[in-house]
Amino acid sequence: MTGPIKMTDAPMFQTKKITDQSGYNYEAVINDKNGVRIYTLKNGLKVYLAQNFDAPKIQTYIPVKTGSNNDPSDNTGLAHYLEHMMFKGTSKLGSSNWEQEKPLLEQISNLYEEHKAEQDPEKKKVLYSKIDEVSQEASKFAIANEYDKAISSLGASGTNAHTWLDETVYKNNIPNNELEKWLKIEKERFSELTLRLFHTELEAVYEEFNRAQDNDARLVNYELMDALFPTHPNGQQTTLGKSEHLKNPSMVAIHKYFDEYYVPNNYAMVLVGDLDFKKTITLIDQYFGTFEYRELPEKRKILEKPMTEIVERDVKSPSAPRLQIAWRTDSYGTHEARLAEMIAQILSNAGESGLIDLNINKSQKALRAMAYSSPFKNYGSFSMVVVPKNEQTLEEAKQLLLDQIELVKIGDFPAWLIQAVINDMKIQRMKTFETADGLATTLYGVFINDQSWEEELNEISEYEKITKEDLVQFANDFFKDNYVVVKKEKGSNEKLVRVENPAITPIKINKDSQSSFLKEIIKEKSTDIAPDFIDYSKAIKTEKIKGKKTSFVANKYNDVAQVYFIFPFGSDHDKELGLATQVLQYLGTSEFTGKELNEEFFKWGISNDFRTTPDQLIISLTGLEENLPKGIALLKDWMQNAKPDQQIYHQNIITILESREVAKKDKGRIMAALSSYAKFGKESRFTDIITEDRLNEIHSEEMTQKIKDLLFMPYEIFFYGNNFTRFEEYVQPFIEEEIVPVPPKKNYPEPATEGNVFFTNYDMVQVEMSKVARGTNVNLENFGKINVFNEYFGRGLSSIVFQEIRESKSLAYSAYVSYAANSELNHPDYVTTYVGTQANKLSQAVDAMDDLMGDLPQVPAQFLNAKNAVLKQIAAARVNRTNIFFNHLNLKKLGIDYDLRKDIYANIEKLTLADLTDFYNTELKPLKYNTAIIGKKENIEVETLKKMGDFQELTLTEIFGY
User: Fold this and answer.
1) Across the strands, what pairs with 932?
2) Which of 17, 416, 786, 905 could hold 3 in an S-S bridge, CB 3.0 to 4.6 Å?
3) How confident is the model at residue 922, as a pLDDT?
4) For residue 26, what is the enclosing H or E element?
């Protein structure tokens, strides 16, 4: 085969205008299989509707066409802070007595204006003390998290929001029977802004800002954007804002921003799911059509001068070195943005067949490298990233990247790669649009970027017009010495900016109170959704093919098929199994080199994946069903005839050992290692690694033999596609007789947690603390209680832990308690608590969490809300696609083969707060916790840690096992 099979050309899409039976005008696009309708109400509100009947749910987004780029230059971070405050309610939602609360909020607002204007630091402290005092009084009438309680009472999930350059997006996934109540709540939220509990939320934003100081990706991105956009807000106004602006907020400015940008002609309603078009648009018009159109502030277009030189920036942090290069590109939807995206795919793509993939990653010339394009609403960026090997300088790593650009400039890449990339775009679009969230996310992006749905759908047709000559010409014109290079070196962050947290008094959060608005929402009954539990014997078709159990679930959505070969053993049986599959990625066969094999898979539009877990190895192929026979044949030949190569293996070992060192510099991985140590001790899967000596003595032939043996070992097959009869035929040549036995499983200890405290030093702004306790062995009878406990007490915006730790005391941006049932019989459950906070707040955070965990708080109304929320979530949930098979597979580990949700639902229906309290007293209260803490030692009072239990400071070698 010389090139990829050309998939059917993308159809041409054209907008048509239609009037429905109720007289509403909408736009639809001819040939749009998604059936998207776009309405524009009289007040300018755009409404995007589409149907998806996966579940009786609706994915909702309310995107507002404003973000950090519209922040006032003296109030950066405002859009993001406003996003936080949009969860605080209104005069009707979140207040027990608005008449008394209102004048206090006005007084607080005036005090903040005085505070902002005051230059004397001591006088500012006095003013902030007064703000704290009045806030205490105002909090007596505030009901914390009432928006979240209202939303959770619907059975909503995924409640969240985000702010970025030109967007602020509010998210909920709701049961479709709660559509009208959701609209009532959102209408109330968007009708007015009430800045209650302002100074405690400001503390949470401080915490978020300080967390960002520990995030390498953010630090690099800040420097990159600042250099790429020296004039435009893209680079000059970060989403979190400047520290001096966070310390001096203005409630008046936030109100002004809300009044100017949160108007119906500047936001949209995006709903995709099990909805009726007529009913939905009528209800949206009823609730949101009453908002008044308002002219937007005039916005001056800011143009950047062309870059004419290389701009270098340095970033230092404790993590491993890396380098990023970026060029400024044109905006989303432009021809230049498409050319930049295509070149990014020519360099690195899903098939790992790009120039960077093959010439750097596959050749193991760096630890890893990649390219990607990021088009924004205004301008964009084209980036290349590389993590160097130990012996490489950043300059040498940079040259590796630039060498690949030079290859593009001279056209040294195969022409077929363009078609393969376009084929992959089509497959990824199919997979995106088949889910309600995927389609809804695309639609809100269309709105934010001022694109039409027709333009978005025609995007792939525009890609199909791009030729190799176009790319070569563009590369020569575009890639000059006009880029930004950010060198991320290991060291102390000399530009560290901490926002010091002012002293505030914990506020009263009135957990037992409910506003009249919330009472009405809860009182109003909706038609119940009946839960739908799966009969797995009917949902999964099972056959024997040459003695192998083969399961089939029909793909009702598109022509993308998947096949899984599932081996009932994993790294617990052979800890070198994952190494063998990793080495395989670099090897070829007698017919293809390793690089050519990557190309061959990508030509056919087939992706492969080898995933090793402690108890399973799953090898999978994904692609168009018509190409799957070729993919299976390639996989069989690869596994059976992989050519051992000791030199390649040796290079792979160098990469593995260097990657281990990189892990020991990464905060997230260190915390994961420390948490594992706290949970399992030093004898664990995490620390039981292949030693360096063993890695060096292995011969490549041992690895290829392991892969070949897999063909002769026990496994089962799962096919997700359309034509099972044909699959049964073309999968047969893959199957061999079972003659190789499964190796014995190693059992790892699950020791009791005894109140130990483990600390690892790391140079960071915050402190992260996780406590873990081993519970009793998994009990299916407890699953319903666990679900309600997590909803009521431990996780989510309306949980008691979130309210107390963040809303009342402002001790952390992130805090939770989670009870996790074990996925396998005869193994223990675990309870985990987490707090990320400032070092000077650690002692308070520990005390606050201990107080909460002492006895289960008794808040009957909140319990009932949590219980009903979980019931509604289960009733509206549907298991579909590949989840049907894998859920059933996982249930077998618990000793059952039916839909456990049926039992869970029944148990929750009769659950009382007294039952949950008994569960807590029996299963959680007696537990002892081990604690994992990571932070900068000089900022932490070690005596505080020693009071928590038997203290031990651990080295990286101890927690990683190497």
Assistant:
1) 758, 770
2) 416
3) 97
4) strand 25-30
d(CA 466, CA 5): 17
Say which DSSP state 145 is in: T
Element (H, E) at 775: strand 766-777
CB under 8 Å to 239, separation ≥6 — which residues? 67, 68, 77, 79, 80, 163, 164, 165
The residue among 832, 868, 657, 698 whose CA lies nearest residue 753 is 832
Q: Which two tokens stand for residue 607?
A: 């992706």
Instruction: Give the chain's length.
Output: 962
Q: Which residues have CB under 8 Å from 122's CB, separation 6+? A: none
Q: What spatial distance separates the first Cα and last Cα of the chain, rounded to whole Å?
A: 46
| 498 pLDDT above the threshold of 80 | no
Output the pTM of the full model.
0.96
pLDDT confidence of residue 1? 45
Rg (CA), the chain: 29
**Residue whose tokens read 């060198």:** 487
Q: Phi, psi at residue 707, to the nearest 5°?
A: -65, -45
Rounded to whole angstroms, what are the CA distances from 413 to 134, 138, 383, 401, 476? Answer: 67, 66, 19, 15, 15
Q: Both tokens of residue 681?
A: 């001790």
Enter the tokens of residue 536: 């797995």
Instruction: Compute the half-sphere exposure of residue 543: CA atoms within 13 Å on the CB side of its CA.
Output: 12
548-554 and 716-721 strand pairing: parallel
Q: What's the rounded Cα separation, in Å, for the pair 358 and 856?
A: 56
pLDDT higher than threshold 60 for residue 84 = yes
Tell me the pLDDT tens digit for each residue of 386-400: 999 999 999 999 999
Task: Please tell me the distance from the alpha carbon of residue 652 to that of residue 657, in angstroms, as a whole number.
Answer: 9
Do residues 790 and 818 touch, judged by C-beta distance below 8 A?
yes
Spatial distance between the Cα atoms of 466 and 556, rounded to a whole number of angstroms: 33
Q: How far is CA 314 from the centre of its chain?
A: 28
In tens, the pLDDT along 326-371 reads 999 999 999 999 999 999 999 999 999 999 999 999 999 999 999 9
Give CA–CA dist 578/572, Å, rounded. 11
Cα–Cα dist 102/255, whole Å? 14
pLDDT in tens, 253-284: 999 999 999 999 999 999 999 999 999 999 99
For residue 492, what pLDDT band results from cuts at 50, 70 and 90?
confident
For residues 904 and 787, is the Cβ–Cβ distance under 8 A? Answer: yes
Q: Is 824 helix (H, G, I), strand (E, B) or coil?
A: coil
Which tens digit of pLDDT belongs to each residue from 849-860? 999 999 999 999
DSSP track, 74-90: TSTTHHHHHHHHTTS--
Alpha helices in 530-603 (DSSP H): 536-539, 577-584, 594-603
Kindly give, in sequence order, each residue whose CB lies less than 8 Å from that of residue 164, ignoring residues fewer than 6 positions away: 67, 68, 239
Please give the distance of CA 381 from its chain centroid, rounded to a whole number: 22
DSSP code, position 556: -
Average model confidence (pLDDT) across the chain: 95
Half-sphere exposure of 211 (CA within 13 A, CB side): 15
Which of 774, 778, 784, 815 lies closest to 797, judged by CA?
Answer: 815
**How many angstroms separate the Cα of 260 from the Cα of each of 362, 659, 725, 937?**
52, 50, 60, 46
Q: Could you give the count of Cα atoms lying within 13 Å of 736 in the half-sphere of its Cβ? A: 13
> Quick check: helix, strand or coil at residue 564?
strand
How many angstroms separate the CA atoms of 601 and 597, rounded?
6
Amino acid at 653: I
Both structure tokens of 717: 């097959």
- The 8-class DSSP code of residue 512 comes to T
Distance CA(574)–CA(853), nearest Å, equals 40
Query: In this structure, what is the dihedral angle of CA atoms 692, 697, 699, 702, given to the nearest 10 degrees?
Result: -80
Matching residue, tokens 């506020």? 507
- Three-state DSSP state, 373: strand
